[in-house]
């Protein structure tokens, strides 16, 4: 810490500061001030050229040597991962090794060199372009974020073809903030949070590997800045505000001082929140709501524990299927789930069956090229088509239920027939385990994601089929408002407080409670403090969110009475537009928390 403060003092004295300000996507909260370490991940420039027949074999040999060197480099990274981080990053590094060694990449590139008589760089770029075209058709934000893995492997090989060194984060020995076009999982595996105080990248989104790892490491991060790497130089000063996505390069002394004070305020607030960990999440008049955590990968378990989550409300299982040439086996599923369940017990783990798009998914190349994948063969629709694959996961979930409390949840259910078919397959999986003499929780509860408008409209019927509902607001808002939430041209229409969305949520809560069901919410909306009074007032029983949001949400929850929340909800539902609702709720929050809500709802 002393060295870090010294670095900041040195930077304050620099002349000709430019105060370059950029706004991106804040993916991990907090503030970092310090020196830039520019990690050169710019794409290697190459000249496409045709080659003579007699030089084809030499070109293939050059390509193979670059691949071999890349494999050796990745293997070295794997060896250098600290033991305490090994389980967190092993599968990511192994995925990069599998891509590099894969027949698809190697055979396709070599065939192109032979058939087209072109140099290795050009052939490799053609392979990459073909994969990126496949990814362009994927509207799922989580899956589309995986394209960076392919790009990283291709770029590594390109750099080796060009004879350029591969920079490593492992050798950094002073406090810095990383600036890069992108950070690969291999990069983040080498991050020492005691030295690297934050990072910013040109690309990325809230569900990209960089975002997930930033939250896991709990260091400030901003992604999706487009051109930050073009404005940054190693040694320059940078301020990163992960809470609001603001980045300032070469700030003035006054700005540095302002953000130093803001950093201290943030640290004080975080420390003050820690006492809430052991307190019940309830309103001032004793109405309790269960605050749970969403996780994507097991390495987030430590953060869940530190922030006092009351179990896992959404365990996304897609990562088990990504960047693989073979399907995960039942035993592979089981070992991962068992580890999570044992870590979380006696609290409950809610495992969502996988939600992937396309009719094949073992690699990006094999994803189906659908006209509208967000509404195509994905999630439960894929599972009902590929019953064998589905059953492998179901049996593993059932087996894990013998080691701690588990619920299973099915995504993208749109009607009664789908949930009944799903339940039949689930019962078949139970029969198969009984025949093998394998123990599981015979009373395991099943639930479904409420994220399709047709399901919301018949919630009263669906409530008779399951034990609990969980509202997935990310897709619900997308489907209800007819917008693509990852399309920059229409994302201004993505409005969680749209009256239609709120009315649907209110209706499904009523239907659930009439049948005695527990109902929660696990979309991004659940972890946004501004929305909390409305969600509480609607009568939701559970809210599941990123672990870092739990204590902030708990603080607000414990400051309202249930009746106050009900009144705020009642008033909010009278407004005809999302903007009016947001302004109204913001004003109510600013009265109670002026230090937290002082910039306006649209700032």
Please name the defining characteristics of this protein.
TIM Barrel, 603 residues, 3 domains, alpha/beta, 8-stranded parallel β-barrel, Enzyme I, Chain A, domain 2
What does this protein structure show overall?
The protein is an alpha/beta fold. It has three domains: 2-35 and 178-264, Phosphohistidine domain (Glucose Oxidase, domain 1), CATH 3.50.30.10; 53-162, PtsI, HPr-binding domain (Enzyme I, Chain A, domain 2); 280-574, Alpha-Beta Barrel (TIM Barrel). Helices cover 46% and strands 13% of the residues. The protein is built from 24 helices and 16 strands. Strands 1-8-7-3-4-5-6-2 form an eight-stranded mixed beta sheet. The chain has an eight-stranded parallel beta barrel with strand order 9-10-11-12-13-14-15-16, surrounded by four helices. A hairpin with a 4-residue loop joins strand 7 (237-241) and strand 8 (246-249). Helix 2 crosses helix 7 (147-162) and helix 13 runs parallel beside helix 15 (387-400). Residues 13-17, 358-374 and 486-490 have low confidence and may be disordered.
């Amino acid at each position: 810490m002393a060295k870090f403060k010294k670095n900041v003092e040195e930077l304050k004295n620099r002349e000709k500061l430019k105060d370059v300000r950029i706004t991106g996507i804040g993916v991990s909260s907090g503030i970092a001030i310090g020196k830039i370490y520019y990690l050169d991940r710019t794409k290697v420039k190459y000249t496409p050229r045709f080659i003579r027949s007699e030089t084809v074999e030499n070109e293939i040999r050059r390509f193979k040597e670059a691949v071999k060197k890349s494999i050796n480099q990745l293997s070295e990274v794997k060896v250098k991962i600290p033991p305490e981080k090994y389980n967190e990053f092993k599968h990511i590094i192994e995925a990069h090794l599998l891509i590099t060694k894969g027949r698809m990449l190697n055979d396709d590139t070599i065939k192109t060199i032979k058939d087209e008589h072109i140099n290795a760089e050009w052939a490799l770029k053609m392979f990459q372009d073909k994969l990126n075209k496949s990814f362009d058709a994927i509207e799922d934000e989580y899956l589309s974020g995986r394209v960076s893995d392919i790009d990283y492997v291709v770029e590594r090989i390109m750099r080796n073809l060009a004879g350029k060194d591969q920079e490593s984060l492992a050798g950094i020995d002073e406090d810095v903030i990383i600036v890069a076009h992108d950070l690969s999982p291999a990069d983040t595996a080498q991050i020492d949070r005691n030295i690297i105080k934050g990072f910013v990248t040109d690309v990325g989104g809230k569900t990209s590997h960089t975002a997930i790892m930033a939250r896991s490491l709990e260091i400030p991060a901003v992604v999706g800045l487009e051109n930050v790497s073009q404005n940054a130089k190693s040694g320059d000063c940078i301020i990163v505000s992960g809470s609001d996505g603001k980045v300032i390069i070469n700030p003035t002394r006054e700005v540095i001082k302002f953000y130093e004070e803001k950093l201290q305020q943030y640290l004080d607030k975080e420390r003050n929140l820690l006492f809430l960990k052991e307190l019940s999440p309830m309103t001032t008049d004793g109405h309790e709501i269960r605050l749970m955590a969403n996780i994507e990968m097991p390495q987030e378990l430590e953060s869940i524990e530190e922030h006092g989550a009351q179990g896992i409300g959404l365990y996304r299982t897609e990562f088990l299927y990504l960047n693989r040439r073979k399907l995960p086996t039942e035993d592979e599923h089981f070992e991962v789930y068992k580890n999570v369940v044992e870590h979380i017990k006696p609290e409950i783990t809610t495992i969502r069956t996988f939600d992937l798009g396309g009719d094949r998914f073992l690699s990006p190349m094999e994803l189906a090229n659908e006209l509208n994948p967000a509404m195509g063969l994905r999630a439960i629709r894929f599972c009902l088509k590929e019953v064998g694959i589905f059953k492998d996961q179901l049996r593993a979930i059932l087996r894990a239920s013998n080691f701690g409390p588990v619920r299973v949840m099915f995504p993208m259910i749109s009607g009664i027939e789908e949930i009944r078919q799903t339940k039949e397959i689930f019962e078949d999986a139970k029969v198969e385990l009984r025949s093998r003499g394998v123990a599981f929780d015979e009373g395991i509860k099943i639930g479904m994601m409420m994220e399709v408008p047709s399901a919301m409209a018949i919630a009263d019927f669906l409530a008779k089929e399951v034990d609990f509902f969980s509202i997935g607001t990310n897709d619900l808002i997308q489907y209800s408002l007819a917008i693509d939430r990852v399309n920059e041209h229409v994302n201004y229409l993505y409005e969680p407080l749209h009256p239609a969305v709120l009315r649907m949520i209110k209706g499904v809560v009523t239907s659930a409670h009439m049948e005695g069901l527990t109902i929660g919410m696990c979309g991004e909306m659940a972890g946004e403090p501004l929305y909390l009074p409305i969600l509480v007032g609607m009568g939701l029983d559970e809210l599941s969110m990123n672990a870092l949001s739990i204590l902030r949400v708990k603080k607000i929850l414990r400051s309202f009475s249930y009746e106050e929340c009900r009144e705020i909800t009642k008033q909010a539902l009278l407004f005809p537009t999302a903007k009016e609702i947001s302004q109204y709720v913001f004003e109510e929050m600013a009265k109670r928390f002026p230090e937290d809500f002082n910039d306006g709802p649209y700032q």
